[in-house]
Specification:
Blueprint lengths: L1 E6 L10 E6 L2 E7 L4 H16 L8 H26 L1 H20 L22 H8 L14 E3 L6 E3 L21
Parallel strand pairs: 1-3
Antiparallel strand pairs: 2-3, 4-5
Length: about 180
């Protein structure tokens, strides 16, 4: 496998634009930074000729073409990334996305979603149903509702009974009542 890397002029012998090193099964071609296209072609031609005469590792044409293609893609993406990082418009889109996410994080908890079950007939109060209390902790059937519309919920443990929330109309008076207290 052939890799292409770029080095400073003091890493390569003076007067040369490229050098080759072999590391096991991979070959690395070192090029000077900032070469013009003609200089790059001349450097690759000189490396191929010196490989044919045995002065450097072999550079098969298909592998070298694939390495040059990968290098072209890699350097193109690197230059596009540098432009994206340095231009003010490049940071605008990510900043807008982060800002929109922060605003959504702050505003969405303020929105409450309620299920609409249709209009209630006049005079009917919203009382907790035994089915909803049963889903919370498994209310025992046959227990009468407590004062204030609370429903006892059977619970195993130190507390023998838990209470379901009071209806919305009685929240100002007593939000939770116990079986020992009386309704107002």
């Amino acid at each position: 496998m052939i890799k292409i890397r770029y080095v400073d002029p003091n890493k390569i012998s003076p007067g040369l634009h490229a050098a080759v090193e072999c590391h096991g099964r991979s070959t690395t071609v070192y090029l000077l930074c900032g070469l013009r296209p003609q200089q790059r072609r001349a450097a690759f031609r000189r490396l191929r000729m010196s490989a044919r005469t045995g002065y450097c590792p072999a550079l098969p044409a298909p592998q070298l073409a694939l390495a040059r293609f990968r290098d072209r893609i890699r350097t193109g993406l690197g230059q596009a990334g540098a432009v994206f990082r340095s231009h003010p418009a490049g940071s605008t889109v990510p900043l807008m996305l982060v800002s929109a996410g922060a605003i959504a994080f702050l505003l969405l908890p303020a929105i409450s979603v309620r299920a609409w079950h249709g209009p209630r007939p006049p005079g009917q109060l919203a009382v907790a149903a035994p089915a909803s209390a049963a889903s919370v902790g498994g209310a025992s059937a046959g227990l009468p509702p407590l004062p204030g519309g609370l429903i006892p919920v059977a619970h195993a443990g130190p507390d023998s009974e838990l209470l379901a929330p009071a209806p919305r109309e009685s929240i100002g008076v007593a939000a939770f009542t116990s079986p020992d207290s009386t309704a107002p």
